[in-house]
Design brief:
Length: 228
């Protein structure tokens, strides 16, 4: 199954459904990337969902002279239908993504941006109705302290609590529940597991509404959930 077909298939599911499937495939934390929440088009509200292959961008401290220095601007190379994933150094005060970047990414056909760091120009992203997930917001542009070193290379989530790597082409799913990364080589297997879990949970919910206990309903309906 190609990436487009996987992305289309995932449209029916939430990031929680994805995480459930990835747990069965032994992906740590079900692929959840902690601390990244929706800021645009609204703050943790609505039906916004982004699904697409990761186009990764790595920022480093300006003092890191041994890191590569790419020509051109990363945003001009964003492929259509991608999720832009920005990796910034941990504990960075400056923002690393602004309104002009969303304007260009939107023109390029990207489906959204996820920032392991801060964003700025919040209203500009919202005016575009362009989806952005981030750790936090700020006012200050990045060039004072960081620069881009690489694009479309593996990047590490800058978290003291979690060790996760996002590879180019991994499928990023983001919605009101949070952001999940599906390793590209597991995407088809994960998708194959989701529907039976969703069906079972719908039956459990229906039974609960009729007064049945959670324990009884789960025992009956989750017994036949598809396994890897």
């Amino acid at each position: 199954m190609n990436t487009k077909a996987i992305v289309k298939g995932l449209q029916a599911y939430t990031s929680c459904d994805v995480a459930d499937a990835l747990l069965k495939l032994k992906v740590p934390h079900g692929g959840f990337l902690a601390g990244l929440t929706m800021w645009s088009p609204k703050r943790q509200e609505g039906q916004t969902k982004i699904i697409g292959p990761a186009y990764t961008v790595k920022y480093v401290r300006k003092s890191y002279d041994n890191e590569p220095k790419p020509a051109g601007h990363y945003i001009d190379s964003v492929p259509p239908e991608a999720v832009v994933f920005i990796s910034a150094p941990a504990r960075m005060i400056n923002a690393c993504y602004g309104g002009l970047m969303s304007k260009r990414a939107n023109y390029q056909g990207a489906v959204g941006t996820v920032i392991d760091g801060r964003l700025r120009d919040l209203q500009e992203h919202r005016d575009l109705e362009y989806p952005v997930f981030a750790r936090d917001i700020g006012t200050t542009a990045p060039q004072e302290v960081v620069r881009v070193s690489e694009t479309n290379t593996p990047v590490r989530l800058n978290s003291e609590d979690q060790d996760a790597v996002i590879h180019p082409g991994d499928i990023i799913v983001g919605d009101i529940n949070g952001v999940v990364c599906i390793p590209q080589f597991l995407a088809e297997k994960a998708l194959d597991l989701m529907q039976s879990q969703v069906d079972a949970d719908e039956k459990v919910a229906a039974d609960i509404e009729k007064g049945r206990t959670v324990a009884e309903a789960m025992k009956e309906h989750r017994a036949n959930v598809k396994q890897p």
